[in-house]
Amino acid sequence: MVTVIVLSPSLDATAPVQRAAEAVARSLCALVRASVEGIVRDALIIGPAEDQLAEIADEAGCSYIEASSAQEGFARAVAQSRSDIAFVLEGGYAPQQGFVEEAGDLLHDAGFRGALLRRSPDSLMTWLAPSLARPVGAFAARDDLRGAAPRDLAELIRRLKIRHTLTARAHKIL
Length: 174
Hints:
The protein is an alpha/beta fold. Helices cover 34% and strands 27% of the residues. The protein has a single domain (2-172), classed as Spore Coat Polysaccharide Biosynthesis Protein SpsA, Chain A, CATH 3.90.550.10. The chain has helices spanning 20-30, 32-36, 54-60, 70-80, 99-107, 124-128, 142-145, 153-160; strands spanning 2-7, 40-47, 63-66, 85-90, 93-95, 115-119, 135-141, 165-172.
């Protein structure tokens, strides 16, 4: 089982993002099947107070970590994580068909080294070369996350040198 960490879109922005709470809520909704299938153990939301995410976390039954930056929130999220593997997802994205099956396979892989969830192709270039699509989610071992303190998901991926990419993609939902 994994701990899901959903990052508010406002963490990367210089000002609060309108509808950030809705983006996070939709991302959580997209993971309900993974929870029912026994992939997700718990979930945490990281975001600034301005996004008003505490109520969403309460309604969804997950934890809320108030932080003005991903760097600040990651350390606390990792400490609260209840699973050995974490799935970090940018709010506003939803994994597509096949994600649950691939995530389940990852959990049973003895040589687990992390995996990326990339955005669905959104340009001609990413249709022709899907590996150029921006990563919007990543699976990583909790022990690897300790002390990482990344500024954002991209930096986390660089620091952990995650190379494996899931076949499933995520589409932007907001």
